[in-house]
Amino acid sequence: MKxxxxxxxQQIARIFGVNRGTIYAWEGHGFPVRPPExxxxxxxxxxxxxxxxxxxxxxxKGVSEEGLEILEEAIRERKRQHFG
Length: 84
Prior knowledge:
By secondary structure, the chain is mostly helical. The protein is built from 4 helices and 3 strands, in the order βααββαα.
C-alpha cells in the first residue's frame, strides 16, 4: 500500500536528513525525480521510489545489511515525526 504521494526536493531532503544540494547531486546517480507536470512548476519526488533508490544506492556504496536496517528504521521514524 502506498502511503505517500510526491514531495518537493526540499521536503524529500528534510525526510532523508540531507540538504537540497545532496538531492541534486543524487540525481546524477539516478535518484528518481519526476519532471514538472507543467511549465513553471517544480519537479516532484515519489517517496516510495526515492526510498527504494536510496536503500539500493547505499547498498552499492557498501553499507552493511545491519546498516540498511538502521537506515530503514530511521526513515520510518522520520516519516512518523513528519506525517503522524
